[in-house]
Amino acid sequence: MSAGMGAAMTWPSFVNPLGAVLFLAAIPLVILYFLKLRRPRVEIPSLVLWQSVVNDQRVNSPFQKFRRNLLLLLQLLILTLLVLALTQPFIGSAAGTAEFTPILIDCSASMSAIDPATGETRLSLILDQVRERINNLRSDQQFALFTFASTGRRLTEFTNDRRVLLQALESIEATDLPAQLDDVLRMAAAYTTSFPIREVILLTDGNLPESVEFELPFSLQVKRLQVQGANLGITEMTARRDGKDGWELFIRITGASEELQTAELQLYQNGEQIFTERISAAAGDGERLVFPIETDTLALVEARLIPAGEDVLETDNRCWLTLPATRSLQVLTLGQLTTWQRAVNVLDGVEQEVVTGGVPDQTEYDLIISDGEIPEGINAPVTLFVDVIPEDLSGLIEKREDVCTVTDWNRTAPLLQHVSLGDVQIGEQPAWGPEIGLRELEERGYEVLAEGNAGPLLLQKREGLKTTWWFTFHTDRSTLPYRVGFPILAANAVNSSLKQAALSEVSAAPTGVLPALQLDAGQDYQVEAPDGSLTAVRSGMTGLLTGIGASEVGQYRVRDGNDVVSIVGTGLLSLSETSLSAVDELRFAEVQVDTDATIRLETDRPLWWGLALGAFVVMLVEWWYFQRVRGVVD
Amino acid sequence: MSTAGGSQYTELFDNATLKQIERMRLRPLRRLTNRARGEHLSGKGGSSTDFADYRDYAVGDDLRYVDWNIFARLQRPFIKQFQHEEEMHVVLLVDGSTSMLSGDKFLRARQAAAAFGVMGLLNLERVSVYGIHSAGEQPAVFPPSTGRTKMRLLLSFLERMEGGGSIPLEQSIELMLRFHRGRGIAVLLSDFLTLGDLSRPLNMLYSSGLEPWGLQILSEAEVAPDVEGDLRFVDSETGTTLDITNAAELLSVYQQQRRQLERYLDAQCRRRQGRFLSVSTGVDLEQLLKDRLCRQGWVLR
Prior knowledge:
Chain A is an alpha+beta fold. Chain A folds into 5 domains: 18-36 and 46-89 and 609-626, no CATH class; 100-228 and 583-605, Rossmann fold; 232-326 and 572-578, Immunoglobulins (Immunoglobulin-like); 329-500, Class I glutamine amidotransferase (GATase) domain (Rossmann fold); 512-571. In chain A, 20% of the residues lie in helices and 33% in strands. Strand 2 (41-44) of chain A pairs parallel with strand 9 (231-235) of chain B.
């Protein structure tokens, strides 16, 4: 797919061959030369001697005749050079001469790695190539510049305006995001409907996902920088609840080179150093470290990696993780759900409130298990309904007085992990309505986790941070409570709630988009990025603050006026970016693209400026030769 | 000295130069006699007492000139020849064409003519001056004169002489010969820059009994032109043009052509028992007279 560097240079081609018509200007030039040659008139006493000079055989030798018309020859030479420059000859590169060429520039985190050979970042090396290519842009060529990391970004429309392209190029900076090709390829593909794009140039260091779910509508020419360098970085940082007042912090360090590299890992809790550990890692031989963190309050843990040797990528050396305050999971059980109450009661770290017909004590819970409607004002991120059909599905699912069994269930769903429903008998039969199927439910955002022989038995719906499950039958009218899977099912629901409430396991947020934050509803906030820039945001009606871009590694502070209401740290946390590995082949749908590991981006070599410069030099020579001060004979 | 003290005798040169000129004499290669006297030097010998040479007796020779002493010893008759002083014409032809007006050529020509004229007058030669400048006009003529008394007239004539015209030198010579009768020397004061053939007028001079003395006077710009680049030369006399490309490159050829012209003119004059000298206006008059002309044997001091 990509053309090789070894292709031989061809004869010059011409962008504007019609410009050669101007060679006809040589005819009037010659005529005017002989008709209008302006020579200074010098009156001399007699022409006798000069006439004899002119008649001298030596003066009339071919060389002297040539010299006599040197001015004409120089003018013809200038005309030839100018006309050739106008035709815009160029020596085409093997890269082809597509007229509309999108250029996709990798701005992922690995592009900020410093090339040990040149001391420049990989992005700088690539931008130099693009700059050269732009400078050699022909008038019939148009480029559109795109950058990509985890998402794509269009910098320019198709244009041949060098100033615009170079200006856009100057604005490109490496981000702290992992590389993803899909988005930018879709953006480039969107242009194929408007422009005859035959080829897309992708400039990268090769640190890309090997497989891309995208069907290429054009030829993709991947130019990969061939750079190396040693690197160590933090690729994983998670914490798991350990007891009542503590956490176990897991950190994975990964190396990029085959040789073992050493570094010092420092851990800070709320700015105070709590651990220092010397580690060593190599490519494919990472190190996983576990640190106990004793805290029951909100804590911000920072991991700093200080490599002992060469480390070409700095952004993966720091990472932050916010540990929430530890507490018990608040579970509200509404209605006559004895089996569920018992199953939840035996679980550790759970405080269950059972309400049968009364009013709950609190308004906020982590998990609500109910067999009917939940009183207004009572909220929980995770809700489990038993024997309830969602209101918007009434009419789509109906209950029949019949027995049914579970025919299939989603074994990987968190709620159904390690739960076998194979021989569960159900005393009632939820059934599909007339001409209703799975599609109608999916259109409404429901996912069927378990299906009986007549209809859906377990539904799941996610809305923002909220997760809701519906058992469309009453579990007490089935053999499920008697199965060994039932306590597991209850434990799964509790564990999911614990995760949702970040009470059992938290992970450091990778760069890209900050994790959703639960704040006051409909409130304006400002998010302060690590570089100090402020972004105004507004929480949703549910108090959820989502979609905050985080392209840099560091701490993001959510401010309500001058008050900091939340601090979220991010890290690169990308194994592929830290490893700096380069893929040799990109797998697309039905096609594979080799990445061309050439250092330089091949560009057309326009010759017009050389010709124009030559014409200018000849003009200067002519001016110097013919227009200098002449001696005049009185 | 006939010059008035305290004032210049002539505008052409100062009194000191005139004083030096008065002591100079022309030195013709042959003393061609004036035909009006009816004598011929080679045919009859001279009538003076100065012995010149012997020659074989020829039938018809005057027996009075046989050297009888020689005849007695050798038994062969020899005619004894004697030199005699004859009246010699000094014809000064001053080229007044437009080409002579550039630089100081015309002035230098009139100065030289004055010098030659003074020398001739004081040596009792018959000096005449012809100033010719235009083909359609009669030449300005100073008639043949001799003696110191004519010096003032001669100098005044030359001072008043005007130039400007397009007559070529060969036509000037032929025009002069229409008016002049008398043998002697003809000093041609010109730049000799003519496209015509000088053989014929020089032959006419020679056959008229005049030694052609050519004094080519060129301006410094003609001797060493300082030109370069592409130029359009315009002839000052005819107005014709000549395009020259890269004149500086042609200067060496120009100098060769100029020297070739000198050699040609010198040969033409010598072939007719004459003399030729090319001088630049950069050479001052005193140097011309005392150095160049004396050294070349034109004048005696």
